[in-house]
């Protein structure tokens, strides 16, 4: 006697078919072209260099650091004055002329303090006084102080020795702990001497409110080189992003053997980039370097989802559709958590990928109102 048992039921991942989750979007090609145009116009018209805040600590830590800096009267580390001279005496003479402007700024409340070499070293003309004149001045000063005029001979002897000393060199300042900080602000080259005069601005002052008109002195922003480097990187990232997108579409076309389908994916990807750029500009006022890197992830992940969803567009298999949506949901949740971070790098990448991937899914799920 033979008993036939029914085959065991297979366990499938239940879900909805693609037709149940897709929706019809009238004039979808025109909408995507419009999003591309809006993105390009927004970037060209409203984009600006983003503030350098990516590597700053969270807000409460930054506030504590600023409070400590104000208590210790530390330099602002953002603005400084570059003073140049062909020799050390010429540098000191230029700094003496600059002191008048900086002292006036302190009197007007536009500056708290500054540090320069001329505050500690006198220029060469301080030793231009003849010895006899120095002796007479020393005797008069000692007499006014109620001291014996005989001490003037000792001061004259020290003065004569000072006039015979060799000029101070940069390595001389590095020999002692007290003068090592001065040496760090100096740069000596074949073109002469240059000192970076540190400025301590009042709290909540983004930039100096006074002008530097002293010859051979220039007000500089120390963040300019960093900003220029970031702008160059942003341009390179944008260029390679478009090159990679075009190359990826070419590979898709060769693999699918369908240029129309590859161009539709390319059009959707460009529309997502344009819409994401517009949203980021409205939200942050600028597109940072890390947000542009996040757009690379959006294009890579979005093209994969577009390809998979396009391939199962006519498929009624619920398992395939549910698997794609579970994968997309976990990805969105992961980048949503990153967007909540107080660290700027993680926050900006999370927001950019969250916006871009959400738009990519919406445009991929939509169907045009008429055959393309």
Descriptive overview:
The chain is of the alpha+beta class. The protein is 60% helix and 9% strand. It contains 13 helices and seven strands. The strands form two sheets. Strands 2, 3, 4, 5 and 6 form a five-stranded antiparallel beta sheet that branches. The chain has a two-stranded parallel ribbon with strand order 1-7. A hairpin with a 2-residue loop joins strand 4 and strand 5. The radius of gyration is 35 Å and the shape is rod-shaped. The two termini are 62 Å apart. About 3% of the residues have low confidence.
Largest sheet: 5 strands, antiparallel
Based on DSSP secondary structure assignment, what is the total number of beta strands? 7
Quaternary: single chain
Mean pLDDT: 75
Which structural class do the helices and strands define? alpha+beta
Total DSSP helices: 13
Indicate the overall shape: rod-shaped
Strand content: 5-15%
What percent of the residues sit in helical stretches (DSSP H or I)? 55-70%
* Alpha-carbon Rg, integer: 35 Å
């Amino acid at each position: 006697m033979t008993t036939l048992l029914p085959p065991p039921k297979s366990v499938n991942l239940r879900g909805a078919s693609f037709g149940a989750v897709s929706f019809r979007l009238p004039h979808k090609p025109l909408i995507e072209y419009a999003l591309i145009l809006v993105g390009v116009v927004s970037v060209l018209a409203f984009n600006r260099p983003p503030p350098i805040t990516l590597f700053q600590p969270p807000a409460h830590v930054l506030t504590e650091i600023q409070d400590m800096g104000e208590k210790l009267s530390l330099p602002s580390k953002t603005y400084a004055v570059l003073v140049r001279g062909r020799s050390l005496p010429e540098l000191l003479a230029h700094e003496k002329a600059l002191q008048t402007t900086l002292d006036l700024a302190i009197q007007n409340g536009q500056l708290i303090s500054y540090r320069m070499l001329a505050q500690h070293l006198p220029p060469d003309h301080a030793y231009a006084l003849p010895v006899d004149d120095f002796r007479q001045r020393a005797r008069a000063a000692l007499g006014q102080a109620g001291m014996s005029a005989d001490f003037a001979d000792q001061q004259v002897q020290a003065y004569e020795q000072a006039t015979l000393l060799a000029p101070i060199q940069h390595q001389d300042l590095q020999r002692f702990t007290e003068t090592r900080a001065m040496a760090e602000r100096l740069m000596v080259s074949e073109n002469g001497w240059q000192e970076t005069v540190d400025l301590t601005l009042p709290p909540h002052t983004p930039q100096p409110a006074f002008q530097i008109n002293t010859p051979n002195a220039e007000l500089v922003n120390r963040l300019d080189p960093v900003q220029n480097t970031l702008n160059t990187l942003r341009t390179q990232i944008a260029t390679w992003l478009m090159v990679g997108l075009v190359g990826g579409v070419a590979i898709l076309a060769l693999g699918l053997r369908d240029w129309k389908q590859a161009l539709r994916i390319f059009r959707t990807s460009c529309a997502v980039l344009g819409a994401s750029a517009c949203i980021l500009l409205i939200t942050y006022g600028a597109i940072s370097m890390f947000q542009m890197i996040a757009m690379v992830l959006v294009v890579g992940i979005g093209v994969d989802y577009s390809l998979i969803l396009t391939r199962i567009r006519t498929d009624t298999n619920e398992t395939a559709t549910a698997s794609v949506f579970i994968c997309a949901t976990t990805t969105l949740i992961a980048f949503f958590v990153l967007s909540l971070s107080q660290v700027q790098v993680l926050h900006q990448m999370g927001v950019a990928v969250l916006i871009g991937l959400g738009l990519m899914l919406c445009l991929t799920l939509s169907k045009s109102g008429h055959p393309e």
